[in-house]
Each structure stands twice: as C-alpha cells, then as structure tokens.
C-alpha cells in the first residue's frame, strides 16, 4: 500500500512540475498588490509600503507547492517616481525558483487626470530541479538535475486615472534561453506576457467597489484569465472573490487597521480540474504595511 501511495504521489508531483514549468508565478490577491506583476503600478500608490505573502497549496501533502513573496516600494515624490524590490521563493516537490529584482518606475502627466507610468526591473534568479531526490536509484533521473543561475530583466507600462482606473502590460522576465541541464528542452524559461486592468468606484460614503483582471500568456499554453472583485466597507473590511480560467475560485477578505492591511484568500478547484483524493484548497495570507501617516489621503488606486 505504501509503494502504491508513493507511486501516486510521484506521478502527481511530476504532473505538477510539468504544469508549474509552463506557468508564470501566480497569486490570488493581486487586487491589493500588483507590484510583482507590474511594478509601474507602484507610482499610482502615492505612498511607500511593504507587502508580504505566504501561499500554500494541497495542505498536508509532502512536496506541495509553496510560495513566499516580499516586495517594497519607496516614492520619490519630487520626480514622480518610485524605486523598490520584488522577491520570491517558489517550491514544488524537487523544483525551486528564487528571484530578487530591483525596479525603477517613472510617471508622467499626459492630460487632465490621465498619467502614464513606465518601469524597468533587473535582478537575478536561481532555478533548480533535483530529480535525483525523487528516485535516487534511477540513472535517468539522477543524471537529469537542473541547476541554473542567471540575471533577469523586465519591463512594464501602465496608463491610469488616479483613484479610478488603470490599464497596463508587463514582461517581468525577458528570457533568452532555456535552463541548463539534461532536460533543458522543456522550456522552463519562456517569456510571459501580462495585461492588467482595474477600476475603482465609491458607491457611497461607506461602500467602495474594486474590480481587477490579469491576463497571462505564453507560447503553447492556453491564455489564463483572472478576474477579481472586492467590496470595501468603510475602508476597513474588504470582501470579494476571484475567478481563474483554470476552474479555480477564491474567496477574498481583507481588514485594515491603521497602516496595516491583512488579507486572506481561500481558493479551490472545481469541475474536471480536481485531483481525486487530495485536498485541492489553497490558502494565501498577506500583510501590507504603509510607510505613511494614517491621516494622509493621497490620490491612490486602491486601499
């Protein structure tokens, strides 16, 4: 029975690796923090901040996907710009990806309330697949480990009306080749393209609605569509949902206390995408910290 269970787990992890290698990093609560996908978004914030995220899929399953992210942005108000960093640690089974990027974003006033922001980022990434750790007595796997280190560059652009609307496109990683290793032809280092849309409206003194969408595309992979909506009550409690085109639905909640914003999402897969016999839920916890006086009410996009 243990051998059968191990074999099923092995097949599950290999299948997850194939899917993971084709997908760009994803997270659910981008409606509160879009900087890891499009750093040009930070110029819409008009305050400096830090954000942290922890994401766990398939609870109680060894080797299940885990993601930790941290990012920060610091405003340069005199020149209408921001500088900051995005970092991530992503792991599933024997596969791991670690990234750290610095970015610079600059906005210019086009007309009336319309602004245009551009951003450039650069950093490094470390990517590993230790196939030999799965079945050490298999010569094919033991000689197929992938270890890759390289520099990373990316670019982004965003048009926005402060407090109401944004639209942007970004390429967080511009890839010029595959990972080094026996299995380098699987294309772990494809270019991923993102389109971002968002809208915010005050419905009354007590209620504010936010909607946002992210489209992700890469070659030979179906277009992924993400849609989120959140209702803020007195700018303290936020409740909403997220839908992803791979048959994934999430419930969103946020609570703001002074300069802190705490968020939690519960995602689950439905339909034929479910993996029978396994917990398909994903838990995601976020913490945002504003580095500004709580009485300061700038022309922000959200929160």
Written description of the protein model:
- 8% of the residues lie in helices and 53% in strands.
- With 303 residues, it is mainly beta.
- The chain has one domain: Porin, CATH 2.40.160.
- It has a 14-stranded antiparallel β-barrel.
- The longest helix has 21 residues, at 2-22.
- Residues 1-22, 181-187 and 294-303 have low confidence and may be disordered.
Outline of this structure?
The protein is mostly beta strands and 303 residues long. It has helices at residues 2-22, 139-142; strands at 49-57, 66-76, 81-92, 95-111, 114-129, 146-161, 165-171, 193-202, 207-218, 221-233, 237-244, 248-257, 260-269, 282-290.
Q: What are the main properties of this structure?
A:
14-stranded antiparallel β-barrel, 303 residues, Porin, mainly beta
The rough form would be described as globular
Radius of gyration: 20 Å
Q: What is the rounded distance between the termini?
A: 51 Å
Kindly state the percentage of residues in helix: under 10%
Beta-strand fraction estimate: over 45%
What is the subunit arrangement here?
A: single chain
User: How many separate helices?
Assistant: 2
Mean pLDDT: 82
- Work out the number of β strands: 14
The SS-based structural class is mainly beta
How is the main sheet built?
14 strands, antiparallel, barrel
> How many separate domains?
1
């Amino acid at each position: 029975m243990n051998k059968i269970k191990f074999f099923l787990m092995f097949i599950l992890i290999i299948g997850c690796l194939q899917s993971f290698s084709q997908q760009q990093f994803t997270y659910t609560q981008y409606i509160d923090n879009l900087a890891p996908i499009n750093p040009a978004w930070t110029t819409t914030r008009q305050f400096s901040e830090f954000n942290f995220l922890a994401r766990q899929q398939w609870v109680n399953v060894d080797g299940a996907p885990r993601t930790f992210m941290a990012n920060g942005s610091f405003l340069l108000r005199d020149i209408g710009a921001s500088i900051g960093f995005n970092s991530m640690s992503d792991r599933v089974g024997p596969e791991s990806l670690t990234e750290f990027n610095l970015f610079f974003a600059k906005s210019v006033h086009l007309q009336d309330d319309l602004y245009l922001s551009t951003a450039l980022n650069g950093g490094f990434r470390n990517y590993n697949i230790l196939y030999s750790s799965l079945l050490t007595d298999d010569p094919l796997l033991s000689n197929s480990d992938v270890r890759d280190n390289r520099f990373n560059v990316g670019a982004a652009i965003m048009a926005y009306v402060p407090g109401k609307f944004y639209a942007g496109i970004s390429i967080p990683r511009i890839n010029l080749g595959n990972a080094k290793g026996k299995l380098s032809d699987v294309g772990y280092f494809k270019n991923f393209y993102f389109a971002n849309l968002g809208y915010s409206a005050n419905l009354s003194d007590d209620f504010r609605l936010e909607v946002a969408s992210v489209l992700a595309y890469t070659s030979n992979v179906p277009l992924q569509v993400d849609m989120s909506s959140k209702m803020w009550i007195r700018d303290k409690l936020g409740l909403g949902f997220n839908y992803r085109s791979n048959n994934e639905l999430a419930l969103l909640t946020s609570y703001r206390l002074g300069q802190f914003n705490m968020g939690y999402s519960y995602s689950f897969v439905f339909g034929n995408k479910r993996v029978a016999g396994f917990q398909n839920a994903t838990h995601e916890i976020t913490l945002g910290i504003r580095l500004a006086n709580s009485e300061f009410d700038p022309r922000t996009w959200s929160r």
